Amino acid sequence: MDPTEKADSLIEALPYLQAFRGKTFLIKMGGSAMEDPDLVAKVMRDIVFLEVAGINPIVVHGGGKAISAAMEAAGLEAKFVGGFRVTTDEAIDIVSRVLSEEINPGLVRMIRNFGGKAVGIPGNDVFLGEKIKGTDSEGRRVDIGRVGEVVGCQMAHMDAAHHAGIVPVISPLAAELATGRPLNINADLAAAALAKELRVAKLVYLSDVPGLLSDPKDPSTLIKSVTRKEADAMITDGTISGGMIPKIRSAVDALNAGVRKVHFVDGRLPHALLLEIFTDGGVGTEVVR
Ligand SMILES: Nc1ncnc2c1ncn2[C@@H]1O[C@H](COP(=O)(O)OP(=O)(O)O)[C@@H](O)[C@H]1O
Ligand SMILES: CC(=O)N[C@@H](CCC(=O)OP(=O)(O)O)C(=O)O
């Protein structure tokens, strides 16, 4: 690329930099895009870029794959009902350990290594939750253990990080309202709950697909833009399945609650986050109102 082209790229970003300065973006980093530490580091560097550009990024991370691996190593079977992990009392200790002692500090360290400021906040210091039941494939409601949904947010730690200009990195756990004990929360739902609470300008889901696909088996069938209504219809007709369901449901929910825009981006593609936010074409899918 010649120097003028480089300058053109910077100039293309100018209107976005102007529009987004001072705005809050919530980035959900999925476990499926966290298999390769070099790629994760690149995403964290993009987060530092956002912070330096005057945007307030917040990271909510998942870790489903790492949790399943840790459970299997401990001789426990990783089982899901309706997309939620069956979380026994034994399993919640593993879930908490992997999220709060391995993944969360790892992300914080990466941001700091790139000269950014970050603080790890255990989800159970932010989210208040209540236990939920799962719905099995026959539509029956079944006990899935220590799994919850977010019913409230405690913003003291978040506010302190915001005022100090530090990027909060939050794990998907909640403190059970009745007991204070930890509950396991699907990270997509945790991200959407916080995005709604803060009415963020953007909620970005980073996963292991190019975005929303009209044929989930064919990565070339990327849908660039989808409305809430179209997304709902794609769930009903089965085009959207598995891990994409909680993402789309929470996207629609977040838009209904006032979040301006939701993006689905490929976390494996270097700098997908920056390309989606700062270029005219974008690279993933945007869900609009
Ligand atoms: N229509 C669709 N478009 C894209 N992905 C889809 C679709 N339907 C199902 N999926 C699945 O959703 C997965 C992403 O969800 P998940 O594995 O839970 O990711 P994460 O760990 O990032 O939360 C994709 O890997 C893909 O297999
Ligand atoms: C209740 C429930 O299923 N919790 C999830 C939390 C982690 C998560 O959601 O991670 P991803 O974003 O990588 O899928 C789990 O235990 O896997």
From TrEMBL:
Keywords carried by this UniProt record: Amino-acid biosynthesis, Arginine biosynthesis, ATP-binding, Cytoplasm, Kinase, Nucleotide-binding, Transferase
Originating species: Luteolibacter yonseiensis
Top enzyme class: transferase
Record's GO cellular component terms: cytoplasm
Source organism, top-level taxon: Bacteria
GO molecular function, one term: ATP binding
Positions of substrate binding: 63-64, 85, 184
Chain ranges of the Aspartate/glutamate/uridylate kinase domain: 23-266
Cellular compartments annotated: Cytoplasm
Pathway as given in its UniProt record: Amino-acid biosynthesis; L-arginine biosynthesis; N(2)-acetyl-L-ornithine from L-glutamate: step 2/4
Gene3D superfamilies: Acetylglutamate kinase-like
Lineage of source species: Bacteria, Pseudomonadati, Verrucomicrobiota, Verrucomicrobiia, Verrucomicrobiales
Catalytic activity as recorded in UniProt: N-acetyl-L-glutamate + ATP = N-acetyl-L-glutamyl 5-phosphate + ADP
Descriptive protein name: Acetylglutamate kinase
Function: Catalyzes the ATP-dependent phosphorylation of N-acetyl-L-glutamate.
Record family assignment: Belongs to the acetylglutamate kinase family. ArgB subfamily.
Pfam families: AA_kinase
